[in-house]
Structure formats: structure tokens, C-alpha cells
Amino acid sequence: MSAPSKTSGAMIFYDIAMRPPIASTCCGPNPWKSRLALNFKNIAYSSIWVPFPNIAQVRCALGVDACRKFGDGTNFYTLPILIDSNTNFKIGDSFDIAVYLQTKYPNSGSGNLFPPQKLDFVFNHDLALLVPLSERKESEHDEYSRFNTYVDAAFSAHVSLMAHYIPFDPVTAEASKAEFIRRAGVKSWDDFEVKGEKREKLKESFRLMLGDLVKLFLRDTSGPFLLGEQASYADLIVGGWLRMMHATLPENEWEEARGWHGGIFGRLHDSLEKYAEVK
User: Fold this and answer.
1) Is this prediction's pTM over 0.85?
2) Which of 76, 103, 115, 142 could form a disulfide with 68, with the two C-beta atoms 3.0–4.6 Å apart?
3) Domain limits of the chain?
4) Does the pLDDT at position 48 exceed 50?
5) Which residue range or ranges hold the GST N-terminal domain (predicted)?
């Protein structure tokens, strides 16, 4: 791995503040994708932790437009945000952050975030997602962009297994839960809890979905990544969601899930640990 980029000391990364200790509870999948990418490229940066109820205010104050909208057309303000003070460039979408890092620092860290590969995973599901998905224009990284969209849709379809266990900061927990309740149009936080037979059915759906995804990882079994021993942003996309699972699923369910399909996703999670430092 190369030395940290000397031109990137002023990188500022905005992530969502969770319950202390934040280093072990931060669980937003999109911020995790960006944090893994920053560490993959060995870019020097510092983190600013934003309480969940303050995200919209902070994003607007920074002048970073919302990159997603709710079904009713209102803006969905979320994180991460990356600011490169060397260029005064502000990026408010995890995929755009990865593209920026690869474009600006192509030779830093562990190499190319976007090596050529076929990422033919598709997940089609007609559902109203609590968290809106980003819509992207065509670009040179379309294969990765489509993969990102389908992976987000697939995991978001099963996020109710995790939502009730999000480790909110006690200081802002009630306001955070109230915002989730408002977005989902439910009556109380207890409505997010999935129990009993319904939970078992959703877990089985999750396992089957991951079985479709695992087919891509079986094309090259020389290492834990989609390209064997070479990690790419596609691995970080899945890894961001695995980080959320690790932080939010009950411990016994996380151990169960990481063992599905011969433990492929558990090995992926563990192999990305070297890029998971929280700075």
C-alpha cells in the first residue's frame, strides 16, 4: 500500500453519529462505502460526526444539494459528504465520492477502485423503500453503478430486519426515531420490530437473495473478493451493507448470516477489515 496522499490532508468526511463508541456503532451503508474507499485509496482525512436530526441542516449549510428524493418529491438529505479543501470540491453521494477518489488519486493506495469486470446481479422488487435509492446518469462506470443500485435495492428490501436495532445516540435517539416514524408513516417505533414467523420468512428471503449475489463471488475463488485477491469498489458496496448488518443485527443473527452460503460474506467482511479504520 502506498503512503497516504500528501495532497489530501484537508479531506473532511461527514458521517452519521451513532451511540458511543462511534467507531464500533457507525452503521450507515453509504457512509461505510465511502470510508472503505477512502481507506482503500489510503487518503488522509478527518471525520465530522453529524447527529441524525441535524443532517438536513448541515447538508444545506454546506451547500450540498440532496442527491435523492422521497416518493412525494421532497428532498432526502443524507450522508456521506466529502469535502476536498485542496480543490474546494464537495461531493454528497457515495458513488460520486468513489469516482472522485479514483479520478483525482488514481495511483494511491491499493490501486484501481473500478477495474473492468462483469457485475450481472439483478434485483427487481416493487416496493416503497424507506430509504430512496439514487438515480444515476450513464457514465464510464455503468457496470458498477447498476450493481450499486441493485445491491442497494436488495439489501433495502430486507432492512427491516435491522432498522429496529439501529444504535442511535441516546442524546438524539427520540428525535431520530421520530424522523424514521414520520418517513415510514407508522404509528410508533415498535412498528419497525419484525418478530416471530414474519421475521423468519424475511430472513429466508434475505438468505435466498444473497444466494443470487454469491454466484458472482464463485466465479473466482482464489480470494475473498469478486476478482479473487483483488478488491474493487463492488466489494466495498457489498461491504458497506455487511457493516450495517454487523452493527444492527442481533449478534446470533449476524453470526448466522455471515455463515450463509459457505461463509462467503463473512470472509468478505473480515477481509475488508483492513480498510475499515474509523478516523
Assistant:
1) yes
2) 76
3) 11-275
4) yes
5) 18-109
